[in-house]
Amino acid sequence: MLLPSYVAGKRWASVVDKGDVTLISGAAAGDRDCLAALYDRYAPALLAIGRRILGDRREAEDLLHDVFIEVWRQAADYDEARGSVRAWLLMRMRSRALDRRKAAVFSKRADLPAPEAVAATVGDAHSGEDPELGADRTAVRRALAELPAEQRQVLELGYFEGLSSSEIAERLRAPIGTVKSRVAAALTKLRQGLMPEASR
Question: Which helix (H) or strand (E) is 19 found in, with range?
Answer without folding.
Answer: none
